[in-house]
Design brief:
With 534 residues, the protein is an alpha/beta fold. The chain contains 17 helices and 18 strands. It has helices at residues 40-47, 81-86, 90-104, 111-123, 128-138, 155-169, 185-196, 209-215, 234-269, 276-288, 355-363, 398-405, 411-420, 437-450, 467-478, 491-497, 516-531; strands spanning 2-11, 14-24, 29-33, 55-60, 66-69, 173-177, 201-205, 218-223, 226-231, 315-326, 329-340, 344-348, 370-375, 381-384, 455-459, 483-487, 500-505, 508-512. A six-stranded mixed sheet has the order 5-6-7-3-8-9, sandwiched between helices. β6, α7 and β7 (201-205) form a beta-alpha-beta unit. α5 crosses α6 and α12 packs parallel to α14 (437-450). The longest helix has 36 residues, at 234-269.
């Protein structure tokens, strides 16, 4: 279906690929992995013919229909959510323009024409609307949202509508760039199950380890400018890569020992008449050797010790009889909730159920209409939100912000932590005023970790982090002795940390005193079935 041979591609004078090859077969589910800047998005552009390689071949089967979900949502006009999902708005009109233009010049056998024709046929199918509604429900939309203008909704919800359109079309090759970024936990689980039985091939980029473990059967790693294939899911890839590294490292070490012994013989006996011929033979033996390259060790999570916060009271925070409404929309009526010291609690539930609202009430940043919020004895609270950058000094550097947050932290340790959270080399001297939203989010996260409160509230802390950085965060939080309440759609992150689940739905908060798998066993299956019910 997709074949790449001897690919070479440079961007900005930097060689990303050289001699890279890859094959994706019909129905195969694959992941493309590699560090930030390795060339994952560039490879997608090449496959989509939006860019040209410097050398090599990128070949897609003639009748292959390809669909692509970018990280950022396309702009929408006045069309409804259902119009976006069925293509009845801009997409069908765009495809018709492409077809007419190509027909006008007689180019009806080109790959562009064949693909546009296949996409148009898929969206024109009489069953497309029913299929779109089923998929939209799976992605978390309510029936009442189907006919709302899409532009009234957030970028994340618009992205879901675009994803729904791709799934309605059922491309033979589906390219997904971070498809879980804009999904809540239940819609992520729905997509995960959907892709497991998807009839076409899937090639995805993701930072969600659990999602890849559940979905993919082949991993392509960008390594040393090449594409290395590993059969199995992401965890299997990590094991295979580590084993390959150990084997090559051992072979390199053994060869170096052999070369050293041969050179020692040459150096010792080359000027001894009776041994000179043997020494020359040893020298030629070295020259004939096929040298083994010293392997680069795989990147591993950075381990650092979080300072332990002061011990708080047994009941760290509680809500009693809390009423919360936005105008006529009542989120909570008489909510009672107690969080106890040492708990690691995850809030789960569909988008719009009130998870972030509850976290903001606990944090004291959102006023409610009635009830009481009470902090326990010696409670020191910290609230991490992706959207809170107002605590940063615009004139301070990244490094300065971290050192101010933890005055006893050594600069060397601060540099190590910053590097593990993707602030490398001279980036630590950048002023916070010029940081992107994602960089500000990561910097705020670091500030919490180097000077943690004993009650830590976190809203989607893994957003903007790559897989290795997520692992570093998990390792740090596992050693954290305080109380943690968080929202996340990263299942691996939840499984590693949560000891209690609060299920938020329709104004009700139900406690499950166990990990995420216990919650799924007791409630998750019913929830996921309800998402796809007619």
């Amino acid at each position: 279906m997709l074949t790449i041979r001897d690919l070479k591609k440079s961007v900005g004078g930097r060689v990303l690929f050289e001699g890279a090859s890859l094959t994706v077969n019909y129905g195969e589910r694959c992941a493309l992995v590699g560090p930030n800047g390795a060339g994952k998005s560039t490879l997608f552009s090449l496959i989509l013919r939006a860019d040209e390689p410097d050398a090599g071949v990128i070949q897609r089967d003639e009748w292959t229909m390809t669909g692509f979900l970018p990280q950022e949502a396309e702009a929408v006009g006045a069309e409804s959510v259902l119009d976006v999902a069925t293509g009845r708005g801009r997409e069908l009109a765009r495809l018709e323009e492409v077809l007419h233009a190509l027909e006008k010049v007689g180019d009806v056998q080109s790959p562009a024409y064949l693909e546009a024709h296949a996409q148009h046929d898929a969206l024109s199918d009489p069953q497309a609307e029913a299929k779109a509604k089923r998929i939209l429900r799976g992605l978390g939309y309510r029936e009442a949202d189907f006919h709302r203008p899409a532009r009234e909704m957030s970028g994340g919800w618009i992205m879901r509508a675009h994803l729904a359109r791709l799934l309605v079309m059922e491309p033979d090759l589906l390219l997904l760039d971070e498809p879980t970024n804009h999904l809540d936990l239940l819609s992520l689980l729905w997509l995960q199950d959907y892709l497991k039985t998807y009839s076409g091939a899937v090639l995805l980029i993701s930072h969600d380890r659990q999602f890849m473990d559940e979905v993919v059967e082949t991993v392509f790693e960008i390594s040393e400018k090449r594409l290395v294939a590993y059969r199995g899911n992401y965890s299997s890839f990590l094991e295979q890569r580590e084993a390959a590294y150990e084997a090559q490292a051992a072979a390199w070490k053994n060869q170096q020992k052999e070369i050293a012994a041969l050179r020692e013989f040459v150096d010792r006996f080359s000027k001894v008449a009776s041994k000179a011929s043997q020494a020359m033979s040893k020298l030629k033996q070295i020259e004939r050797m096929e040298l083994i390259e010293r392997p680069t060790p795989p990147r591993k999570p950075f381990r650092f010790q979080i300072p332990q916060p002061p011990r708080g009271g047994h009941q760290i925070i509680s809500l009693t009889g809390v009423h919360m409404a936005y105008g006529e929309h009542h989120v909570y009526r008489g909510l009672d909730l107690t969080i106890e010291r040492g708990e690691r609690t995850v809030l789960v539930g569909p988008n719009g159920a009130g998870k972030s609202t509850l976290l903001k009430i606990l944090a004291g940043v959102l006023e409610f209409q009635r009830g009481e919020r009470k902090l326990g004895h010696a409670a020191k609270l910290g609230y991490f939100s992706q959207h809170r950058a107002d605590t940063l000094d615009a004139n301070a550097s990244v490094l300065d912000e971290v050192l101010r947050a933890a005055p006893t932290l050594r600069e060397e340790d601060a540099r190590g932590i910053l590097g593990s959270f993707l602030f490398r080399k001279d980036e630590i001297y950048k002023k916070t005023a010029v940081l992107s939203g994602g960089e500000k989010s990561r910097l705020n996260l670091i500030k919490f970790l180097v000077d943690p409160p004993n009650l830590l509230l976190m809203d989607e802390p893994t957003t903007h982090l790559d897989i290795h950085t997520v692992e570093s965060l998990i390792l740090a939080l596992k050693d954290y002795a305080g109380t943690l309440v968080f929202i996340s759609h990263d299942v691996h992150f939840i499984r590693q940390l949560a000891t209690k689940v609060l299920h938020v739905r329709a104004g009700q908060v139900t406690s499950y005193p166990g990990g995420f798998d216990y919650f799924l066993e007791k409630k998750g299956a019913d929830e996921r079935a309800a998402l796809t019910a007619e």
